Amino acid sequence: MASTAAEKPTVAIVGLGYAGVITAHALLAAGKARVVGIDRGTSFFHRMSGPLAIADPAFAAQLNLPYATMFEGADGEFVHGTVERIDEHRVVLAGGRTVDFDYALIATGSTYNSTIDRTRGSSRSGCV
């Protein structure tokens, strides 16, 4: 285990999309756990605010939020890497680094490859 009863528990959050970021923020704000956020990317892209960037081009720079800055000054850290496996109380990353935890949240969500519907015009969609 990552901690003793007298210490704060360590929570590993695998995947820092909307669910992971919201959970990490809530746990850090409560101050009752050490939070380790793990993601294969280096920043959160606030996809839902994309249309606002069209109306206000200055806002576009605010859509990418670096994970490292989210954890600055907090009781936790951001770990950049790809998860190979999760053992009991340990996340193992590609390259061999491990992250011990008391609790884990797997919030890997979905993958968005494009905003283009690639099924249109294909034989699967019935479109010509």
What layout of secondary structure does this protein have?
Elements lengths: L9 E5 L3 H13 L3 E6 L3 E3 L4 H6 L8 E3 H4 L5 E5 L2 E5 L2 E4 L4 E3 L2 E4 L22
Parallel strand pairs: 1-2, 1-9, 2-5
Antiparallel strand pairs: 3-4, 6-7, 7-8
The radius of gyration computed from the alpha-carbon positions, rounded to a whole number of angstroms, is 18 Å
How would you describe the oligomerization state of the chains in this entry?
A: single chain
Overall domain count:
1
Structure class: alpha/beta
Structural shape: globular
Q: Terminal Cα separation, in Å?
A: 57 Å
Strand content: 25-35%
The residue ranges in which pLDDT falls below 50 over 5 or more consecutive positions are: 116-128
The CATH topology is FAD/NAD(P)-binding domain
| Total helical elements | 3
Helix fraction by DSSP (H/I, runs of at least 4): 10-25%
The second-level CATH architecture is: 3-Layer(bba) Sandwich
Describe the structure.
The chain is globular and about 50 Å long. β7 and β8 (98-100) form a beta hairpin. The longest helix is centred in the N-terminal third of the chain and has 13 residues, at 18-30. It contains three helices and nine strands. The protein has a single domain, classed as FAD/NAD(P)-binding domain. The chain is an alpha/beta fold and 128 residues long. The model is unreliable at 116-128 (pLDDT under 50). The strands form three sheets. A four-stranded parallel beta sheet has the order 5-2-1-9. Strands 6-7-8 form a three-stranded antiparallel beta sheet, with no helix packed on it.
